[in-house]
Task: inverse folding
């Protein structure tokens, strides 16, 4: 018996697309129907080279057999298990496996379903941790201008991207922001920029303004991805760590993008050799296949909650799908794939080749900066006067037509290919982008 539908299946009206120019898309859809390894297939049968690992998440490439099989097997064996007051083995196994590759000192994993939830979870743990230790005046949260911490109210409050904040009311109170680290004198730097470490000292000013005893946590992306790839100046993260430690403030690294090999180490904390108190992650945790996020914490954070009567819940927080069995199966198979193929360090091996290719775009029209590290890169274009974002958007549409997937934020093109990319594919990606940029008006 056919369903009584109000619309045809190929009618694009009903789906209100996220972070999308809906009207442009629906007039000229970019429809993806299949994916394998480094490529997507479009509905009109074209192959698109993936220059962005989907949305910074398919670090092992697409439809990898181990992950596909693990998900298929798990969904047939146990599709769901209650997340509260119940457990299943894969959730514990995956937590241990994450701890194994995380920076020394990280010992616990709290599951959620996305980067946004991981951020809100970490902020809540920070507030509750101080309170558990009798330090309940510590309620202020500090983020950074141009930071992206997802779209929950906590995340947009500490985040610093104006379009993600301005129409959503007054947000959380008691939030302050560090200055961003995008300095013109660092233009065309290869790797970490030389200038800007002292921007971390602004934290001293903010702490002096409010009193250290009121500040709970600082959250930053060790490398800011979504705003258009801003690398930490040399010494900057070390300085943030020193200042937060000095004042008893927790430091949270949002590693939703940098986690799982993007910079050439499992986590950016290891790459920069700076140890935060908590790490948020998502995306590459399951290779993007099943939604999953996590907050990683030290024993010091976790153990402070393990007090009081044993039958009482220690942290009143969690999600219906925290540690979902199918997501855990995907996570375990993803970590196996990363390990078998050496993907968590592969970005370091390809970094010089990637960097040289990317900086080869320097003299193309409207290019005002190029930034890179690991297997991540950004090409910043001068905006068209009065039409910010238009130049990069046109490049994005043309790039898709030319067979490559790139990402844009404002007039910045960001690249973050799957970590399985080879040198010929780097040449193809950057060569096609060069042709697109040559035609950019
Ligand atoms: C650093 C960072 N934090 C949080 C998020 C939000 O993740 P999600 O879209 O899974 O909620 C993102 C997404 O790009 C991110 O880059």
Result:
């Amino acid at each position: 018996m056919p369903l009584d539908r109000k619309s045809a299946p190929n009618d694009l009206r009903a789906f209100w697309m996220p972070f999308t120019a809906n009207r442009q898309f629906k007039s000229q859809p970019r429809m993806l129907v299949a994916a394998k390894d480094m490529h997507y297939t479009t509905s009109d049968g074209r192959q698109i080279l993936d220059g962005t690992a989907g949305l910074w998440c398919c670090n092992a490439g697409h439809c990898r057999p181990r992950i596909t099989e693990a998900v298929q097997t798990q969904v047939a064996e146990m599709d769901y298990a209650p997340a509260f007051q119940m457990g299943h083995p894969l959730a514990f196994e995956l937590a241990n496996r994450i701890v194994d590759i995380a920076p020394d000192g990280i010992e616990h994993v709290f599951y959620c379903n996305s980067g946004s939830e991981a951020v809100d979870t970490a902020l809540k743990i920070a507030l509750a941790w101080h309170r558990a230790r009798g330090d309940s005046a510590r309620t202020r949260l500090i983020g950074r201008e141009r930071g992206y911490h997802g779209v929950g109210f906590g995340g947009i409050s500490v985040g610093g991207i104006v379009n993600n904040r301005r129409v959503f009311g007054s947000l959380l109170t008691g939030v302050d922001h560090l200055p961003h680290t995008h300095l013109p004198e660092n233009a065309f730097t290869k790797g970490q920029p030389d200038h800007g470490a002292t921007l971390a000292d602004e934290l001293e000013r903010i702490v002096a303004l409010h009193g250290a005893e009121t500040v709970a946590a600082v959250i930053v992306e060790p490398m800011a991805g979504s705003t258009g790839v801003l690398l930490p100046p040399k010494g900057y993260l070390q300085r943030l760590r020193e200042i937060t430690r000095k004042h008893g403030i927790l430091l949270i690294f949002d590693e939703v993008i940098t986690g799982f090999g993007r910079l050439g180490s499992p986590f950016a904390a290891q790459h920069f050799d700076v140890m935060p108190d908590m790490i948020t992650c998502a995306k590459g945790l399951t290779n993007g296949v099943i939604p999953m996020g996590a907050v990683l914490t030290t024993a010091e954070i976790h153990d402070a909650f393990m007090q009081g009567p044993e039958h009482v819940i220690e942290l009143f927080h969690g999600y219906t799908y925290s540690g979902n069995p199918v997501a855990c199966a995907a996570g375990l198979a993803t970590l196996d794939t990363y390990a078998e193929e050496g993907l968590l360090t592969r970005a370091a091996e390809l970094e010089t080749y990637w960097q040289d290719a990317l900086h080869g775009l320097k003299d193309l029209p409207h290019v005002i900066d190029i930034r890179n590290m690991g297997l991540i890169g950004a090409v910043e274009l001068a905006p068209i006067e009065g039409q910010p974002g238009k130049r990069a958007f046109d490049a994005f549409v043309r790039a898709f037509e030319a067979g490559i997937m790139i990402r844009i934020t404002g007039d910045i093109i960001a690249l973050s290919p799957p970590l399985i990319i080879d040198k010929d594919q780097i040449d193809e990606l950057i060569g096609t982008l060069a042709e697109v940029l040559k035609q950019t008006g």
About this structure: The chain has two domains: 22-60+343-438, 68-340. The domain at 22-60+343-438 is CATH 3.90.1150.10 (Aspartate Aminotransferase, domain 1).
